[in-house]
Structure formats: C-alpha cells, structure tokens
Inverse folding.
C-alpha cells in the first residue's frame, strides 16, 4: 500500500476506538487497548483527543456523520419504511454505544417523514400517530442491539427483525 492510501495515525486511532467503544461501551473501553490496536502510544491519543471522553465524542461524531439515511429507497411508502428500518437496525446492531441523541432525533424524524408521506399519499391511515410510530421504530431498532450476542449470524438476525418490525408498523398504519 502506498503512502497516499495509508490511514493517518488519527484515523487509525478513531477506527480502533470505534471498535473498542462499540464492543465495551464507554466505561468498559480501555485507552491502552485502543492505542495498541492503532499501533500508537497512549500519549499520542491524548495529544489528539485530550481525554477518553474527547475520544469517545470524536468517535461518536464520526459515526453520526457516516450515518446517512436514504429514505428514497423503495417505490411505495411500505418499501421505503422497510429500507429505513434496515438502515436503522444495521446502524444500531453492534454500535449502540456510539448512538447519541442526534442520531435518535435524525432517525425519528426520518421515520416520521416517511409515515406522514404515506398518510398524504393515502397508503397509510391518517389517524395513525406518525410521531409515536416513529418513536416505536427507533426504540425497537435500538433494542435489537441488546440481543446481538445471541446469534452467530448478525445479518440474519437484523433481517428477521427488520421484516417483523416493518410488518407490524405497516399493519398498524394501513387501512383495513
């Protein structure tokens, strides 16, 4: 690999820290393990980020910036909702410790917008409370991460979860 494609020390630290915080959470993460995984000394870590809390904030912010929801995937509101739930579940699965209030607000807002669009187009009932349903979607996707150690195939678990959640939401929001 040439020098142009090698990650900087700061990028290596962030990548190692993301893994450490995702696996162990803030309190369980160890700066020594992060430094070792990034092949840097602990002092350099503090030079860049000042503290463990500063490093955590940088990792969380970096994860949030990469969290770009595409709510246009799918032709129908139900298909778009399915795509959104997939995206949310994949973000939450294995990364729950990195998700902060901004993530939650963005996720709720995206889900609420899809539900409201489905209501305006006549696909979903107009008496379904879009904000409450969006809150349920986000709370459920955050809940999927609590069972992640129970399966050897995370992709399969996320897919089954997303299918069930979308089915319940669409059933709740659809006209009968």
């Amino acid at each position: 690999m040439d020098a142009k494609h090698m990650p900087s020390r700061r990028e290596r630290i962030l990548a190692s820290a993301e893994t450490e915080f995702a696996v162990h959470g803030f309190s369980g993460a160890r700066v020594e393990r992060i430094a070792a995984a990034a092949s840097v000394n602990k002092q350099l870590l503090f030079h860049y980020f000042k503290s463990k809390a500063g490093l955590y904030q940088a990792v969380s912010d970096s994860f949030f910036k990469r969290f770009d929801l595409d709510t246009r995937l799918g032709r129908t509101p139900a298909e778009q909702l399915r795509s959104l739930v997939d995206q949310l579940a994949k973000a939450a699965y294995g990364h729950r410790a990195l998700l902060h209030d901004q993530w939650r607000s963005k996720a709720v807002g995206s889900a609420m917008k899809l539900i409201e669009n489905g209501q305006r187009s006549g696909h979903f009932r107009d008496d379904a409370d879009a904000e409450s349903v969006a809150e349920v979607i986000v709370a459920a996707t955050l809940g999927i991460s609590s069972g992640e150690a129970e399966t050897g195939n995370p992709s399969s678990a996320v897919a089954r979860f997303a299918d069930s959640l979308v089915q319940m939401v669409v059933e709740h929001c659809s006209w009968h």
About this structure: The chain has eight helices and no strands. Helices lie at 9-28, 31-38, 42-49, 52-66, 77-92, 101-120, 130-144, 154-173.
